[in-house]
Design goal:
By secondary structure, the chain is an alpha+beta fold. The chain has nine helices and ten strands. It has two domains: about 55 residues, no CATH class; about 220 residues, Amidase signature (AS) enzymes, CATH 3.90.1300.10.
């Protein structure tokens, strides 16, 4: 009989513990509870005053419990009206299509590794002139992501299956003469606060690391319409703060002793290291410009309201902005042909297309803190 005493005691202990916990979680409102709350709020009521509050407090408690039963997910905006337009301002009514200037002939490099540091525009020319296929280019960048993510911790999820499917479609369309523009067939990555159907959207946080949102963010949809190829969902600091997420700390490819900054951590780190031609980040108060400064990339923070944020995690409904991060300086505009409402939304087909010939790249490995992201041809 003695051998059963300990297991029985354990079971009873767990059961009673759960019961006690449940009771503590929902204590009845009493004068004593009000007296304890006074200490936190710096108030002082008599017992009679506290007793007179009880009925109203219990009613309020029931109202709060009822409100908390109403499902409010990330897509439900608060009761907020925010209009940043100056009084009397009107958008331009006529939409002028974007026309890129001519560039000199682009040739496929003898050393394929150099493709990692070609600009979006140059890669677009290679695809348009059929010197390389989108599938080849996509596989090239997928391999770089797999190889260097071990050190940089910049990838949450590789979207390899989707990427190869989109790349094959781009190749078929380009072959058939249906060229959509210089993002057609170009690989890219998206900060993992943007929903992508069929893939987890983690927001960089443990409570959401298995979250599935069954739709594509609007920016993802418009990039797909432009023919871009999504290769990876990239890291962000937990809940869009900093560069530390549930998988570790995203690092600066120039110096592995430093973080990439954030919260568009993986977007800046991966682009700086030549793991992707461009990536989409987001900014509330510095989350594009800060990691771009740290990692030596070019980030564009559009005016609030310029880019649709549907399908993105909300940090601040009146401050959140989405924008691109590239290794090269931006063209004069980021608005136009991919937009459903040209005067208000973003054209991701007009993306950062000037190449800066002096644009730096992370140096060859010269010490344990350096990664050989590029090598001499």
């Amino acid at each position: 009989m003695k051998k059963f005493i300990l297991p029985i005691a354990c079971v009873l202990s767990l059961g009673l513990g759960a019961f006690v916990t449940k009771v503590i979680e929902n204590p009845p409102l009493t004068v004593e509870v009000i007296n304890q709350a006074e200490k936190i709020l710096g108030l002082d009521f008599t017992d009679a005053e506290a007793d007179s509050m009880l009925n109203d407090l219990r009613d309020n408690q029931k109202d709060f419990e009822a409100m908390r039963k109403v499902p409010l997910d990330n897509s439900v905006s608060p009761a907020l009206y925010f209009n940043p337009l100056p009084v009397g301002f009107e958008f331009e009514k006529n939409y002028l299509p974007f026309k890129a200037s001519q560039i000199s002939a682009v040739k496929l490099p003898a050393n394929r590794e150099d493709l990692a540091f070609y600009s979006v525009r140059e890669l677009g020319e290679l695809l348009k002139t059929k010197q390389i296929s989108s599938v080849e280019l996509t596989k090239f960048f997928l391999e770089r992501l797999k190889k260097y993510d071990i050190q940089l911790h910049c990838v949450v999820t590789l979207t390899e299956e989707l990427a190869l499917k989109q790349a094959a479609q781009a190749d078929a369309e380009i072959k058939a003469g249906k060229y959509r523009g210089f993002l057609h067939g170009i690989p890219y990555g998206a900060k993992d606060l943007l929903a992508v159907k069929g893939y987890k959207t983690t927001w960089g946080s443990v409570p959401y690391k298995d979250q599935l949102i069954d739709k594509d963010a609007t920016v993802i949809q418009r990039l797909e319409q432009a023919g871009a190829v999504l290769c990876a969902k990239l890291t962000l600091g937990e809940l869009a703060m900093g560069d530390v997420w549930f998988g570790g700390k995203t690092l600066n490819p120039w110096d592995l002793k430093r973080g990439s900054s954030g919260s568009s951590a993986g977007s800046a780190s991966s682009v700086s290291a030549g793991l992707l031609p461009f990536a989409i980040g987001s900014e509330t108060l510095g989350s594009i410009v800060s990691p771009s400064t740290e990692c030596g990339t070019t980030g564009l923070r559009p005016t609030f309201g310029r880019v649709p944020r549907t399908g993105a995690m909300a940090l601040s409904w009146s401050m959140d902005k989405l924008g691109p991060i590239c290794r090269t300086s931006a063209g004069r505009s980021f608005t136009g042909s991919c937009s459903a409402t040209p005067a208000r939304w973003v054209n991701l087909g007009r993306l950062l297309w000037f190449r800066v010939k002096s644009a730096a790249r992370p140096p060859p490995c010269r010490s344990p803190s350096r990664i050989p992201f590029s090598r001499k041809g």
